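Sanity check

After download, print the first record. It should look like this:
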Amino acid sequence: MTDDEPCCRICFDTADSSANPLFRPCHCAGTSAWVHVECLDTWRRTSVNKRSFYECDACKFKYKFGARVGDQIFVARLLSTAGAIHALALCLGSLIGWASSALGLTGMHHARFVVGDWFGPGTLRGADRDNAFGHVVALVAIAAGLCIAFYWIYSSLEA
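Expected structure tokens:
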């Protein structure tokens, strides 16, 4: 074991695997920073201190519950593949294209839908071509909302 190599603060093992990764659950630094997922879960269940279940005994940082770190790493790796990025771009582009068509920005007076007579005879009424500025603002708001949603999902995976 070297000084630079992370070591579990509970079992003192340096092994890092995808099934039981070393991670930093709190704001502790130095030799107390790293811990295995299973070691921390065991500590949280068996500690005499009841607060150990939801916060670090040393720095008092409240643990963030949610998916296991291994699951988050899997999802992050899956989302970083080229196929996933192309699929997200295709979905986002399709949604923006559909929204621009529905709002009348494609040059049609009425956007056609497959929903039958729900909006009348298969058209969305009220898409006014003369109010293009409002439609552009709506399209930008939709795109910005989707970008914010993807950023929120990505940042919650990192945490």
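If your output differs, re-run the checksum step. Summary of this record's structure: The chain has two domains: 1-65, 73-158.
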